[in-house]
Structures are given as structure tokens and as C-alpha cells.
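Exercise 7.
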Amino acid sequence: MDICARFKEFRDRGRCVVYFPNTHAEEEPEAYSAFLALMRVQMGIMILAPDREERFEPIYRDALKYHLQTIRHSRLFTSYVPIKSRVYFVETIAVRDAFYACADFCVPGGTLVGGEVDLQSPIRAGCPILFGPKMPDNADRRGLLAAGAARYAETLEDIVEQARDWLKDPASAKAVAAKAQDWWRAQGRSL
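Solution. The predicted structure, written as C-alpha cells, is:
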């Protein structure tokens, strides 16, 4: 079964699937805050994937305070994620990149509070990228933004505003993702 088919019920009901991959220390509260604000705009599910294995269990336990129904990837025994779920917790490094293809867009780890940012994985998968407010001001950020190949949220609140457009018009989000692939290749990088 295709991993994205797990979110079939969400797609059938027009709900969003948002990915926060490779989150670094202290980024998960920011991801939850952004997702909770986004749920006021459109119901959906957040896929959350911490950056390192040793952080999986502590982050999962800490997340219980948000009182959101959470499904752990390693413990999903059904074909589909139950529609009442709000968080899909990825605690398996080997499959982390597979979820880019499932998401309406992603907010890469390292862009919420700072740190190393993996751009190649979402670009390779054709996942629209929304940079959080702490995305380093580097050549990749400037180049992607100038090419219309990503979006940038100046504040956590702005993540919701930036996402709103893409959720209303998914085709425009996919067009941005295609521009990111073109831009990446134009820099001499392979996908």
C-alpha cells in the first residue's frame, strides 16, 4: 500500500495534510502552535517528524499536553489513519522522506527556531516549501524566493496566512514545487 493512501479519508473530506519534517530541539512547540492556528482555517492532520531518534520518545511524551489525537507511525496497524487523528508522529527515520509526497506543503525543520535545513528532500519529492521565520538568509532561500519556488513566513502567525492561499488553490502550490525543482536543477544539483 502506498504510504500516502493512509491519508485517504482526509483527502476524501477535503482536509489538509501539513508536514513538519526534521524538527530540531525546541521547534515542536512552534509546529504545534502553527498547526493549531491553521486548524481554525481548515481541518486536517499534521505529520511531525523529529530530526533524531533519541528525541522521538521525549517529543512524543511532551506532545501529549496538546491533547490532540496522535497516531504513531510505528504503531499504525490499520490501513488508514483514523479521521479523528490530528497528528501523525513519524518515528522511523527510514520512511521520513516518504511523507513529503503526502503533504499539501511542508515547513522544514530548522526554519522555525533555526538550525540545519534539508531542502533537497522536499524539492525532490515535489512538496511545496513554506519557510518558517528563522530560515537562514542564504543563497538558497534568496534564490528559491526570487524564482517563486518557495514561500517565506516572517512570523509564526504568517505561516497560516501563507498556507491559506495554497490550501484554497492546491494547483498553485504544486506549481511552486515544480519551480523549486527547476531552480534546484539550474543550480547544477541533482534530484
